[in-house]
């Protein structure tokens, strides 16, 4: 069968895709490896589009696709995936549509009822391979025997099969099909490609606003032998930069230290970046030092807030002092910091909100902030739903710009404060200067942040007057 694996059609709220365009969809490359051969696969990354949402109709026609499978982690993308799937099935009778990722795993019935044929629940590799064999008429299981899928029965009703057991050993897995991914530019080495690697699946922490604990289940590690083998392959393939897609790097400090020692010993150092907890950097400066020697140049740290009460209410297991120490340690080692923050979390007073931009700029090289949103599947989402404090279930409202839950605050006032805090950052002379220079890795990421903010603002303004480009 001929299979197209696709990211969600581009939408204006996908600002992270615009800002960090060197994070390729590794999950699609892994699924491609799981089914090819015998199936022929094409990967389409719609995040690279700007003034149009996608080009899937031409891809389906030219490739002669039998199946189009979407990945959908961000709930606001669900509507466009469902709409485009319906349009594709109308244009190409007999085409089979599939979706996987976080949002459909939590709400599979919603996708089946919208017209998609199958939902792959949670971990995809084994499930997707079995589903493809069934669709090709070669599998030894009927549709109701494939663990980890949702499908439509003869009466048009959604059927959700039992969840598949979690993978425990990643070593036998095929290497991702990076050859199917388009070029992603390196931040550190202009003119060279960047790629991604997964070394951990899941997160051992339980931040209330995050979906990772409920989606991945148990936290599991790849073996260092497998990681080193993949690093060697990445280097042979000519990549100069690699991004860890792990929910959190270095959750096992000793294991990461040993990995970095081997990367150095085997001369496999490649510039790399990824997400890191503040307490890891604050409490383990020796680990940061050897990670830097092994190639670490960039981290995304969830500082979230500079309010003690807010950090506690988020179940963040961090403190203001830890945030400060983490920043000091990373900067001392020459590691660039993308600091993520949330605006409007429970426990944040007006004074706390006013500190976010000021302290965020002090602790970070790049400042990122989202509205505190109960993402579908998170503990916060279920808590707010049980308490009747979710006034909207419109997926597009979950775009991390809207103030969604009812806690007595004025949503319009919260949005105004959010915009004001963002402007304080983007109009700061030092930040503007970095964006205009656009020479160093730091300046290039800041420039991308400006472009992402401009696209978000522009597309949002056009939609208000009835013009929808994407």
Summarize the structure.
The protein has 470 residues and is α/β, with parallel strands linked by helices. The chain is 42% helix and 15% strand.
Describe the structure.
The protein is an alpha/beta fold and 470 residues long. It folds into 2 domains: 2-160, Cobalamin-binding domain (Rossmann fold, 3-Layer(aba) Sandwich), CATH 3.40.50; 185-426, TIM Barrel. The chain contains 19 helices and 15 strands. It has helices spanning 15-19, 26-35, 56-63, 78-91, 102-106, 108-114, 125-135, 212-216, 224-236, 253-265, 278-283, 285-294, 308-313, 320-332, 350-363, 379-386, 411-426, 429-437, 441-464, and strands at 2-6, 40-44, 67-71, 96-100, 118-120, 149-152, 158-160, 194-197, 200-201, 220-221, 241-244, 271-276, 296-304, 336-343, 366-371. Strands 2-1-3-4-5-6-7 form a 7-stranded mixed β-sheet, sandwiched between helices. The longest helix is centred in the last third of the chain and has 24 residues, at 441-464. The chain is globular, with a radius of gyration of 22 Å.
Give the helix/strand layout.
Layout (H helix, E strand, L loop, with lengths): L1 E5 L8 H5 L6 H10 L4 E5 L11 H8 L3 E5 L6 H14 L4 E5 L1 H5 L1 H7 L3 E3 L4 H11 L13 E4 L5 E3 L33 E4 L2 E2 L10 H5 L3 E2 L2 H13 L4 E4 L8 H13 L5 E6 L1 H6 L1 H10 L1 E9 L3 H6 L6 H13 L3 E8 L6 H14 L2 E6 L7 H8 L24 H16 L2 H9 L3 H24 L6
Parallel strand pairs: 1-2, 1-3, 3-4, 4-5, 8-11, 11-12, 12-13, 13-14, 14-15
Antiparallel strand pairs: 5-6, 6-7, 9-10
Helix pairs in contact: 2-7, 9-10, 10-12, 15-17, 18-19
